[in-house]
Amino acid sequence: MFVALALASALFYGAADFLGGMTARRASTLAIVVVSQCAGLLALLIVLPALPKATPVQGDFLWGAMAGLTGGIGVALLYRALAVGVMAVVAPTTAVCAVAIPVLVALLLGERLGPVTAAGIGLAIVAIVLVSQAETSDRSDRSDRSDRSDRSDRSDRSNRSGVGLALLSGVAIGLFFLALARTGPDAGLWPLVAARIVSVGLFAIMVVAGSRSLRMPVRIAGTAAAGGVLDMLANLLYLVASWSGPLSVVVTLASLYPASTVLLARLVLREQLSARQWLGIACALIAVSLIVGG
Questions:
Q1: Residue 64 pLDDT more than 90?
Q2: Which of 229, 101, 107 lies closest to 169, judged by CA?
């Protein structure tokens, strides 16, 4: 059961990222994040009274708040890394770190994996790297010969900065996964409420501090809100999966979300996938079958 829940969370994470990427092309990225985060929180508060009564303890709220803080920081660092670095490097670096942190912690806490499951997790990490990469052109070929060297130096510095931010972002997102998984089933969805309140507050502070505008067309706001609801649904599915399955397996399956994003881009936007991405999707399918079989 936890395998299906984790894979479903990956599907919804990928769909949320797809909608977020579409809207970020037409409005301020920070404004999109604020709208989506608020929409997810509102959807959670609406369904919460209809769910069975939960009995969260203080630790559940603390872990939820930690998840909101680390997740918010991770998203902020990721967007900055994508702005200054190369997407084909930033995306897989962040994704692999986000998987590695919870898996390593789970192993240190005593989880033991069979060889088939361990091979599946390893192949899944390879799949994440491959599906996050697209064909990139060499920007230096388009530069004038007179300033090619200067541009190359600036590009190298920017890329190094992007990789550093991507590593930090991956660690933060990995801690987000880890913090949510530390909550108990008796807490219900209250850790997600705490997490989203903290992340909304964090981004609100960024908006006020940067004097940013949240204005955007109604249609774009609606799409961003839909992405926020899907992201919250993905968090919910991941949280429930983490209660019943090994953390190393659950977080690996949930982190296959880039495959969902690129497939939606292919189906909806007719974007062409690179050979590496197709190979990554194939690796993801094999990895899932190994994990399930193991």
A1: yes
A2: 101
